[in-house]
Design brief:
This protein is an alpha/beta fold. It folds into two domains: about 160 residues, 3-Layer(aba) Sandwich (Rossmann fold); about 120 residues, N-(1-d-carboxylethyl)-l-norvaline Dehydrogenase, domain 2. The chain is about 55% helix and about 15% strand. The strands form two sheets. The chain has a six-stranded parallel β-sheet, sandwiched between helices. Strands 7-8-9 form a three-stranded mixed β-sheet. Helix 8 links the parallel strand 8 and strand 9.
Length: about 300
């Protein structure tokens, strides 16, 4: 199977899928798109000359060598992938389905089994990097599947990513994304506490960041979120409600496997507090807003 100028379809044109599909088109691949809100698919097609839209996932997948999927959660994946009008019903033999949704390892294995029954390949391939990474084509992709399928799809994935790694069999990509979110949750909470503490004890938080960011305390979160956290600007980025969905997946996996995630469970509760403050769509760095709100109450 060649991937130099492949026929592809992209299902799901949210804040991530919309630019990812655009990068595929700009890389020279013929792209057919599907979105449950048809107007968004039509708008995407207007912006990307030479592309096409389809009314169902099945029709979008029918002529594609590669089918990319990026929707909200397990239920959304099942809705778009399965059933008479689902993408899997339209896959031709030898096609490859790549699911970029952050979902459970369970649904990844369901998709893998269904694709194998049709003589097709499958990768679960959740991404990290947020909307900015999707728009700039610099996402990090964590993949689960077999080596041959990964090698076939990797050149296309490269059009919107800076790194893609095969982590193991189907489900391994989703498990790795869980690790990613677990680590981020703890880091953002620690950074929130550090900045809040600096402010409350009379230090200049920006000067503190300047002093410690190049040492052991430095992190991506500190480099990219400290300034906006200090300013209290959260109307952008990866939404709290999405993070809670991701942490819920990780916590459920941990319960099934008997794994202790005490910090993750606590931070998930803190995000629930942020939602109660009206921050459902705030960036995940808004954990600091909870500290400020609770301190002001005290």
């Amino acid at each position: 199977m060649t991937s130099s100028r492949a026929s592809t379809s992209f299902l799901g044109l949210g804040v991530m899928g919309y630019p990812m599909a655009g990068h595929l088109q700009k890389s020279g691949h013929a792209v057919t798109v599907y979105n449950r809100t048809e107007a968004r698919a039509l708008r995407w097609a207007e912006e990307h000359q030479g592309s096409a839209t389809s009314p169902t996932p099945r029709e979008a997948a029918a002529d594609a060598a590669f089918v990319f999927l990026c929707v909200g959660d397990d239920d959304d994946v099942r809705e778009v992938a399965f059933g008479d009008d689902g993408a899997i019903a339209g896959l031709r033999e030898g096609a490859i389905l790549v699911d970029h949704t952050t979902a459970s390892a369970i649904v990844a294995r369901e998709l893998d089994d269904a694709c194998r029954e049709r003589g097709c390949g499958f990768l679960d391939a959740p991404v990290s990097g947020g909307q900015a990474g999707a728009e700039n084509g610099t996402l990090v992709v964590m993949c689960g599947g077999d080596e041959e399928t990964f090698q076939s799809a990797q050149p296309l994935i490269a059009s919107y990513s800076r790194a893609a790694t095969l982590m193991g069999p189907a489900g391994a990509g989703q498990l790795t994304k869980m690790v990613n979110q677990i680590c981020i949750a703890g880091l953002v909470q620690a950074l929130s506490e550090g900045l809040h503490f600096a402010d409350r004890v009379g230090l200049d938080p920006r000067q503190v960041v300047k002093a410690i960011s190049k040492g052991a305390a430095g992190s991506w979160q500190m480099s990219n979120r400290a300034d906006t956290m200090i300013e209290g600007a959260f109307d952008y980025g990866f939404a709290v409600e999405w993070m809670r969905k991701d942490l819920g997946i990780a916590l459920e996996q941990a319960r099934r496997d008997g794994v202790q995630l005490p910090v993750t469970a606590l931070v998930d509760q803190f995000y629930a507090d942020v939602e109660a403050l009206g921050g459902k769509r705030w960036d995940t760095s808004s954990l600091i807003a909870r500290l400020r709100a609770f301190d002001s109450v005290d």
